[in-house]
Amino acid sequence: MRVTMPAFLLVILLAACSGQPPAPTATLPQHVQPSTAASTATATSAPASALNFDSIPQSLSIDNLPRLGFDNAPVTVALYLPVDDPASAALFGSSFPTLLESARGAEILLTTLPLLTAEGSTDARGAARAALCAGEQNAFYPYMARAMEWLRLYGDQAFPGSRLVEGVAQLGIDQNLWNQCMTSSRPDLALDEARRLFSNLPFDGRAPLIVVDGSASLPDPDSLNFTIDRAVAAFAADLDRALSEATAEMTEIIIPVDPLTGERSAPPFSIALPDGWQYGYETMLVSDLDTNRTIPLALYTGPVTGGTGTIVVLWAFPNVITETTSATVTTDLWLDGLRLLRLAVIEEGCNIGTDLRREYSIAGLAAVGTQFSAIDCPALPDTRGWFAGINQYGLNYAFFMYTDPIDAMDTAEGELQAILDTIVFNLPPTPAAELTEAP
After folding, report:
1. Residue-level pLDDT at 139
2. Could you say which of 3.40.1000.10, 3.50.50.60, 3.40.50.620, 3.40.50.11930 is the CATH number of the domain covering 2-13+247-425?
3. Is residue 38 over pLDDT 60?
4. Sequence-ordered list of residues with C-beta below 8 angstroms from that of 436, at least 6 positions apart, any chain
5. What pLDDT does 413 receive?
6. What class has domain 30-206?
7. Which is the most buried residue in 83, 244, 266, 272, by most CB within 10 A?
């Protein structure tokens, strides 16, 4: 058996992180308490009835967090929204129409993470749960628009139970299904995951908060439009550069799955593969952001429940530098993973979707990455999975996990994670000490 892998034809995509979500809580982390400055902001609010959600897909992430927009949108936006903070109502009224139109124009995929302030009341938790349950019927965003309008009109009396039920009726939501959701733990788990992701942001921020492609944005409509336009332009420029720099040298690479010998280099780690798995090593020629470079690659593939699982590892690649000062250089393996996903892993022409930054585990060590999906590819089937980046002993690694068929990931994620847990990184050799004769 042989695996054919052209340089732009390694496909992969969307999966969930393993582990149980933390216990529900009603408070935000100390460093992300609600913004008092934003609470006093004045803005012309768009009434809920004036917002048009027609023709814009609404969906749920793997963690049941609501999303608005097309999966293949080039820019990801996260809206961290405490449902009981007047600042959220002000931001939603002034800036949400900008996000709505950007989603309609297929520029952004918006994920909203409902939160509760440190003073979050039972009524506020009920409102957040009600909106998340509406999201199971693709109605989170119109429901949340009404909830923010109630908060502007009624303040701390915004969310009595009768009003929450009235909102369900106004939107034509199936109340029996909504009731079933409200009596389950699903909305609580989603709230807890939203809080966890918020607390793990790589920067301090105050809620409400809008994050565009991993960077916080000023929330006013003009600044938000500028930030989104810049992110879209950066995506287009990176894609154009990758396509224009592709050369005739980037021909099809054949990776034999049988164990390889010769000059191909094994990765600097050990891994325990299940019965029936095979592996191969090769070097890829990648048209990177600054130059054409070679990156070593290892491929592992074999049976998993429901299909075939694949793990692709790239290593010894340089970082994208996100910030440079006179004293420090900041790198981000999440950005590196996104870059390699688009430049070296996913087939050209696929509709690519990525989720929010999150934590994963490689060899029992903390790694950073996200879920991803690739659909409507020219030559390869739809797929989904996740990637995780880690630096160990001075080397960068990017792990990409996916399954064929795409539905096999529903059951195989734990099996792939179990393989990742067996990895042991090799210690670099210790330089031999120079010996001299004693006088």
Report:
1. 95
2. 3.40.1000.10
3. no
4. none
5. 93
6. alpha beta
7. 83
